[in-house]
Amino acid sequence: MNNQLKKIEEIKKKYSQCAILITDQYNRRYLSGFTGSAGKLLLANEANYLLTDFRYIEQATAQASNFTCIDVGTEGYIKTMNNLLTQHEVTSLAFENESISYMEYKKLEKEGKQKELVPLHSDIIDLRVVKTGEELQKIKQAEAIGDQAFSYILSQIKEGMTELEIALLLEVAMKKAGATDVSFSTIVAAGVHSSMPHWEPDHTKVKNGDMITMDFGCIFEGYCSDMTRTIVLGKANEEQKKLYNLVKQAQEAALSYISAGKTGYEVDKIARDMIYQGGYEGYFGHGLGHSVGLYIHEEPRLSPRCNKVLKENTTMTVEPGIYLPGKFGVRIEDLVVIKENGYENLTHSSKELIEL
Q1: 208-240: pLDDT as tens digits
Q2: pTM exceeds 0.85, yes or no
């Protein structure tokens, strides 16, 4: 039995009295292999259905070998689903309450054949936490493409270039190396912009003395990568060096501690305490990291609010940062695979302070 079927049977067993409706695009791909942008999965008794429309039916049939693929045609999704529920004599429907809109829920409630709607909460997403060997290989390749793009961009950055130009060069380099897309909007934040963790690059020109934070990733065969490096154009001043070294030390401390069996809270605390004790309490306002897979921000998280225990072969970013409003900021991010007694780092770009 392949991994997809194992996961399907696992969720069916937990909701044995229900048919199961999958609407989240990443969960749909994970369970079926279908990469199209429109469709729903319906799991009912011994049958697995992929409902889509004419545009994707040929693709779905080719990709989703464990599913009966149905073109909803003019009937639409709910009527088609109602017919199937009647055939299987199912009266309860489990649905993804964390991804469906209120409007979709009300329509399903009003027009659906089911007598009861049962929320799935995070049960499907939880199936994706531990990565298979095949998934890890794709994530490794995506991260390797990011490393390659970073090496390239170091040879290209010059004073007078804009943040947008740097972002574009990064994205082109990743696609030339085999990526199908970026895994999120590329962040290039120079000078005072680097104090804003999710700055959107604009036409600002980089200048000598700027710290430049670059946070970027790509998609390879459906799986994401994520990395961040902060460099200096020209020579770093003493304050920039101090901040950079503290962030680097905080990341190294968290990496030395991280392993399966630790909680997200515990790992986050290692880096956060070091930054706060260094005099920067209040200047590291985001979590230390997140998992990465088909989607860029997956569970679990490394944060003060996450008490989930980390499992072996879960991917995690480790990305401490310090941000001084109106001045500059520093973030360093690696993507790692959690192991029983530590981690495997998938990010190989240097973390020494680079002065261009």
Answers
A1: 999 999 999 999 999 999 999 999 999 999 999
A2: yes
User: Selecting from 3.90.1150.10, 3.90.230.10, 3.40.190.150, 3.40.50.300, what CATH number does the domain 133-345 have?
Assistant: 3.90.230.10
Name the CA radius of gyration of the chain, rounded: 23
In contact, 320 and 247? CB cutoff 8 Å: yes
User: Rounded to whole angstroms, how far apart are CA atoms 352 and 344?
Assistant: 19
- The label of the residue with tokens 């937990």 reads 14
Between CA 30 and CA 124 the distance in angstroms is 10
Residue by residue, DSSP assigns 281-327 as: TTS--S-SEEE-SSSSSEEEEESTT--PBP-TT-EEEE--EEEETTT
Kindly report, residue by residue over 20-55, the tens digit of the pLDDT.
Answer: 999 999 999 999 999 999 999 999 988 999 999 999
User: What is the residue extent of each domain of the chain?
Assistant: 3-127, 133-345
CATH of 3-127 given 3.40.50.2300, 3.40.350.10, 2.130.10.10, 3.20.20.30:
3.40.350.10
User: Nearest Cα to 41, choosing from 64, 18, 58, 59?
Assistant: 64
Residue type for position 143: E
